[in-house]
Amino acid sequence: MGPAKLRIGCAGLGRMGKRHALHFLNRTARAELVAASTPDDAEIAWGKVHLEPYGVRLYKSYDEMLKQEGLQAVVIASVTTVHAEQAIKAIEANIHTLCEKPLSTSVEISQTVVDAARKRPHLKVMCGFSRRFDDSYRDAWSKMDAGLIGRPSIFRSQTCDMLDPSGFFVAYAEFSGGIFVDCSIHDIDLALWFFGQDSVVKSVVSSGITAVQPDLRKHNDRDNAVGIVEFYGGRIAYLYCSRMMAAGQEDSTEIIGTEGKLTVNMQPLSNLVSIYEPTGIRREIPPNYYGRFEQAFVNEANEFTAACLDDTRLPMKLTGAVQAVKIGCALQESLNTGARIWFDETGRRVEKAQL
Fold first, then answer.
1. Cα 351 to chain center, whole Å?
2. Is 306 left (phi over 0), alpha (psi -120 to 50) or beta?
3. Dihedral in degrees, nearest 10, Cα atoms 143, 146, 151, 157
4. Exposed, middle or buried by CB within 10 Å (0-12, 13-18, 19+), for 170?
5. Contact at 8 Å (CB) between 75 and 49?
6. Of 90, 193, 214, 305, which residue is least crowded by CB atoms under 10 Å?
7. Eight-state DSSP code of residue 354
8. How do residues 281-328 score in pLDDT, each as one tens digit?
9. Which of 306, 10, 302 is nearest to 130 (CA)?
10. Is residue 355's pLDDT more than 70?
């Protein structure tokens, strides 16, 4: 009999759910994908072709999937609006839980997941911020942590998607929480990682435009936005997010310290191939977020599995997911009101006059 494997189910078989399911099916040696659920008929049809032949049982009901005998863990990649509800149900069913970001577009609802997890400390409950599993970001963090750039003081980061003229992001904005909660949430999490998970936000302010997709405004969203997050202790994060890149996915970061700086992916590349043409020399870049961070998602699946099987510590605190949503929601509010939003040294929102 071989070594024990983590019996895991996948909730949702949409854009990211398909990828998570295949990662656990084919690229996570210590896991066994045993179930998947989705209420969508087209996604069920996809599962019958790509999952069912390999022994994966398909469900239209998430609640029914949770009852499958021997199920030990779930990865939640369903629509954002049910992330928290499904995570809490899994926790209450005594099942390890990996949830796609964000836990919710609401700070209060995100906190309910943390509260549920605290009641069952033996479970592994993680919100999947994929960049923490990227080899380049991990190398940059290790160099910073070793003191290579002195004290990190300025963090500048962007998440910029390739323009999608199909209208997908307009429809998605109805439930995504807005461009800061959907896109910049990754950069916010990175800022908390590099500045320290216990960093306390002092103020946020943001501004944005609809350069190519004006229909986003009906959802109080934008296709390009800039945010500034000030932390207590003299640190600032500058964030840029966009839905209109021409060449492909452009996600990059600078960490500027008192004695130097580190950069990650400042010149995006798909690989090491250069194309020589009459007009010059060029290199291609990834077309989307997954193209840039595919291996990070695979690393995430394997490390979550190992933590569940070996009872080892997860690489991030679940409370950090709530911090990230709090900052993202404040940036989205500032985007729509034009107001700067302030917090006291405990992280509680206040009027500026109270500081």
1. 30
2. alpha
3. 20
4. buried
5. no
6. 214
7. G
8. 999 999 999 999 999 999 999 999 999 999 999 999 999 999 999 999
9. 302
10. no
Neighbouring C-beta atoms of residue 119, cutoff 10 Å: 9
**Tokens 């836990």 appear where?**
103
- Cis before 102 (ω within 30): yes
The residues, any chain, with a CB within 8 Å of residue 218's CB and separated by 6 or more, are none
| Cβ-contact 251, 160 below 8 angstroms | yes
Residue 203, Cβ neighbours under 10 Å: how many?
18
DSSP labels, 12-32: --SHHHHHHHHHHHHS-TTEE
CA angle 199, 294, 8 (to 5 degrees): 85
Closest CA to 182 of 213, 126, 225, 218: 225
Distances (CA, A) of 336 to 43, 63, 161: 35, 37, 21
- Report which DSSP code applies to 310: H
| Cα 210-211-216 angle, rounded to 5 deg | 30
Task: Give me the pLDDT at residue 302, please.
Answer: 98
Long-range contacts of 84-90 (CB under 8 A, 24+ apart): 84/109, 84/110, 84/112, 84/113, 86/11, 86/62, 87/113, 87/116, 87/125, 88/112, 88/113, 88/116, 89/62, 89/63, 90/66
What is the pairing mode between strands 152-162 and 201-209?
A: unpaired
Q: What's the rounded Cα separation, in Å, for the pair 282 and 199?
A: 41
For residue range 21-41, what is the model confidence (pLDDT) as tens digits? Answer: 999 999 999 999 999 999 999
Structure tokens at 286: 């990834």
Half-sphere exposure of 244 (CA within 13 A, CB side): 14
How far apart CA 104 and CA 335 sit, in angstroms, is: 19
CB-based contact 88:112 (threshold 8 Å): yes
